[in-house]
Write a structure and sequence with these properties.
The chain is an alpha+beta fold. Helices cover about 65% and strands about 20% of the residues. It has a four-stranded antiparallel sheet. The termini are far apart. The C terminus is likely disordered.
């Protein structure tokens, strides 16, 4: 019988299988690296796209914040202008009231009363400092203030007898200035 050596053939087949295994393993590794590279590239693209959108939104938000700040400044200026207009309108409306107040005051001060000064606080409170010959003259002044259209007696703060010179009564009297149009509006609004 002839001796056939099968070991070489088996060794070659084993080496061939091992070679195929390593080739397959290398191809699989290349395929895995390729897939990982593709996934990484896709994810980096998506991240870059999102960052680009975020940057765009942040720029738009900054621009809107600047516009909001400008709008706030404009609103503040508008409010200041409205306040100035209200003050100017109030002054325009109250201009004739001073003349009417003095006219009414001339009609309300009776003979025997001498006003030294009067002070106007806020828009309607008046304080009169003066001298009266007698107490009945001061009472008459208070009644005339009460019956006046534009003045209203509020309070007699002080009356004292003058000690030197001609006998007289020094008085301090509070009154209110009434503006007829405003009083009726206020009463109408409260009813």
């Amino acid at each position: 019988m002839a001796l056939i050596n099968l070991l070489d053939w088996r060794e070659e087949a084993r080496q061939q299988r091992q070679k195929e295994f390593f080739i397959t393993l290398g191809l699989m590794a290349l395929l895995a690296v390729g897939i990982m590279g593709l996934v990484t590239w896709a994810m980096n693209g998506r991240i870059a796209g999102q960052e680009e959108r975020n940057t765009y939104l942040q720029n738009e938000i900054r621009q809107l914040d600047r516009q909001i700040a400008e709008i706030n400044q404009i609103e503040k200026k508008l409010e200041e202008l409205e306040n100035q207009m209200e003050v100017i309108q109030g002054l325009q409306q109250s201009r004739p009231e001073v003349v009417k107040l003095f006219d009414e005051l001339v009609k309300s001060v009776p003979e025997g009363i001498h006003l030294n000064s009067f002070e106007r606080k806020n828009d309607k409170d008046l304080t009169f400092n003066g001298r009266g010959e007698t107490n009945p003259r001061i009472s008459e002044f208070m009644r005339k203030l009460d019956s006046s259209e534009r003045l209203d007696y509020k309070d007699l703060k002080k009356v004292e007898k003058e000690r030197k010179g001609v006998p007289a009564q020094i008085f301090v009297l509070d009154a209110l200035q009434i503006i007829p149009g405003k009083k009726t509006d206020a009463q109408g609004g409260s009813k």
